[in-house]
Amino acid sequence: MTGMHALASGGPDGVNIPAIVIPLGVIFIVCGVIAVIVASYFRLQGHRADAVAMAQYRKLAEDAVANQRELRDELAKLTEKVQEVERLMREVG
Fold this sequence. Notes:
The protein is mostly helical. It contains 2 helices and no strands. It is rod-shaped, with a radius of gyration of 39 Å.
């Protein structure tokens, strides 16, 4: 029976090593999981911010294209008017 008592206590000094190692292991695992969750959360927030910025850039690009089309139309109208004025000047001059 003394052999059983020595095994249950964990060692010759009476220190129960598994009673210390198991809770520490669980604590380390829980802390690791929490660290991974926090890192993933902040990475997700970064991706969300990037998505919002990309949406704003996409809208800006669409607006720029629309403005460019308007300017091209106005330039075409202005070119027609200038050509008409040049034609009138040739007729008069």
